[in-house]
Amino acid sequence: MIWGYILCGLAACCALIYAIITYRRKTHLAYVTGNMFLAACMVNLTYMARIWARTYFMASLTTSVYFVCLDFLVLCIFYYIIEFTESRIVKPRFKRAVILTICILGLNDAAILMVNVFHEINLRYQYHESSAYAIKYMFEAGPSFSLHLAFVYALVAVTFFILIRKTLIVPNIYRARYVNTLLALSVIGLLTIFYMAGILELPLDVSVPVYGLVCPLVCRNTFDYTSKGMLNTTRKMVLEYMGMPMILFDYEGYLADTNRDMRELFPMLEDQENLISMMDFLQLGEFRDLQSVETDQTFVWENPGSVGARAYHCVFSCLKDKKGRNIGHLLIMKNQETERDMLTRLYSKNSFYGEMDKLLAKGVYPVTVVVCNANGIGLVNDVYGWKKGNELLRKAADLLRKNLPPGAILARLADGDMAVALTEMEQEYAFRAFENIKEQYGKANDTGINTDIEYGIAVIRDGEKSVDDAIREAVESMRTKKLMNQSSQKSSLLDSLTQTLTESDYETEEHVERTREMAIRLGKALHLTDGDLGKLALLAVLHDIGKIAIPHSILLKPGKLTDAEWEIMKTHTEKGYRIASASKELKPIGEYILHHHERWDGGGYPGGLAGDEIPLLSRIITVVDSHDVMVHDRPYHKAMSREAAEAELRRCSGTQFDPNLVEVFLEVLKEEAS
């Protein structure tokens, strides 16, 4: 029976080779599959030994070893099917216990079979010289052999049940790989049954080499499976649900495929019998900005019809094969008006700019642009996870929709920033609306972490200011405010500088806070922009920051400074300017720090500027800071009365202070007192 040795030898080699190939994948399923292939190799080798046996003892030994290897193979097939189908019949927490129990039963069965070699408690053998089978020593099963068969049949039955159940519950497009496995096992099972029943009058159990020869097919079905039907179905589904109109033309320029979004936009595409050419379609759709069908292009298409959006961003592609030959043309259209951020459902950045361009083209002014950001989201993500952080971002977006007028354009920009455009609304309306939104957002925060919304405002009053300019101005204003906000990570820089300043000078936190609040009130009375108000608040806190570089012996000297000491003291404005200029966050207020000791009459320092040459914010701080020093105690003087301080402001008006600012400031003080 030389051909039997050859067939089993080839099957054993095939199984061993694919076991090695599979092990190299180094995944859990690969190890399980590799063990199954290795078991198939062992079954074929032991079956060859069983054919070769020429003595009673060798027949008994090889038959027992063969049945042990067969047990091992059935166990491996059972475990492979569980992992391959990801079966939930065995719950994950019990899977290890079930596998261990079955392995123990298998080892017990193997032990009984090996004892049989010496005591023949399961099998006896009868020599058949004239047998047509390759095996001359045929076994005769004893009563206890039924336990072995029951174990094997039970495992095979459960294996088939798991595989059939998986085949029935998966979608049709994924069913083929499980059907293939089921067919392979069924063929092996039927061959075994037919051989044992004598239906197949062959000298060899042909199911044995089949175990090894099917290993390449099992490996491919497990790891490299691709179903052409599945891929075609999935690709078609992707095209149908991609959310953008798409149309494909073949190499001859005729319609090859399209999706439902394109068919809704152009209903004549529903008629599949009408062979539409690419040129007819482009002419019908009035794609005037498409320059040529020979090159890839992007362009904007203004929809002349009543169905669909008004504007689409179009990508036209010339499809080529590896040799550069034309194989078709593809047109994908993206709705600019409905492009939205997936998390917040606000407009995307591109959609926002598109809507703004259309709005400004109508000449509708003023347009107030607000950029806002939720502070503290990073910390929420770290403590509670991204799900909670995303929930707060969605809450912020919901509050914008709820509290702003229906005509507001809402969008999400980069880095979590959200943009709002309010048509024919002034800055004061945006102030009130966003302060209300901030309050509601704070009440809705249940994390225990200090988070709130910070915002910046810019107003477009004419065509001189672009959308980019407005966004940039609003973002700068928002970032400046973030320095003052305790829930923002940026505020740590300001905290460090103000702490150093209060430790170095007579400045107190109360003085800094009073100066900031009064400066903001004066700024609002002067109708400053939101950006300037943010800078003014920061300037009120840090205008004397240069004093941290002045020696304490001069800064804290109780008596009058000498001329030399005074010259050193005056350098604090330039030192403050250099400190601010070294920081990206503080650079916008550097110039105002430099000139906050200039005088209206030109007698100040360091530049000797006079009148309107002095930056407005520097003039405001000079008035507000001087007044607060007058009305509060200092180590070197007693506080003045309110009346005396106001008289002093009037006396120095036109010399030290801007006379117009003094008048407005006195009105602000009068309102405060009433």
Give an overview of the whole structure.
This protein has 674 residues and is of the alpha+beta class. The protein is built from 26 helices and eleven strands. The protein has helices at residues 2-23, 28-52, 56-85, 92-119, 145-169, 176-197, 207-213, 215-223, 228-241, 260-265, 278-285, 349-361, 377-384, 386-403, 427-444, 467-484, 491-504, 509-525, 530-542, 552-555, 563-570, 572-581, 590-594, 616-630, 642-652, 659-673, and strands at residues 123-127, 137-141, 246-250, 255-258, 297-302, 311-320, 326-335, 367-374, 409-412, 418-423, 453-460. The strands form three sheets. It has a five-stranded antiparallel sheet with strand order 4-3-7-6-5. The protein has a four-stranded antiparallel sheet with strand order 9-10-8-11, sandwiched between helices. Helix 1 runs parallel beside helix 7 (207-213) and helix 16 runs parallel beside helix 19. It starts with a helix and ends with a helix.
